[in-house]
Amino acid sequence: MVEIIDRLKLKDIKKNKSDEFKPHFSSSKELLTYLPTNNAIDYRFENGRYIKCEIIDCDLEYEKKLLIHPSSQPLSVTKHNKYCFIYNEYKKLAINQIS
User: What's the half-sphere exposure (Cβ side, CA atoms, 13 Å) at 2?
Assistant: First the structure.
């Protein structure tokens, strides 16, 4: 019985390690090099899901922020727009993989 419990605990530890999120950009500088050539990016929510977003505005001089909008919504619907501050949220952004 003890062996089974130990084996299950080891299995849980291995499973939790493999589920850890690894950000797509290792630093905000890496994200800044990606932005000039692309107008779409994936945004990661707290629940782990990604949504394809269009970059509407990009302020890289002063505040280093992006204004993103979900691609599934028309541009006239502005309630879904979100400002992403690059230095704080670069781990939530990913290279656009959804076509």
Answer: 0
Q: Which residues contact 25 (CB under 8 A, 6 or more apart)?
A: 31, 34, 90, 91, 93, 94
Token output for 53 = 């977003």
d(CA 82, CA 43): 10
Match 């400002």 to its residue by tokens. Answer: 83
43 and 53 Cβ atoms separated by less than 8 Å: yes
- Alpha helices (runs of H) in the chain, residue ranges in sequence order: 2-18, 28-34, 86-89
* Mean pLDDT value of segment 1-18: 69
pTM of the complete model: 0.69
Residue with structure tokens 């003890």? 2
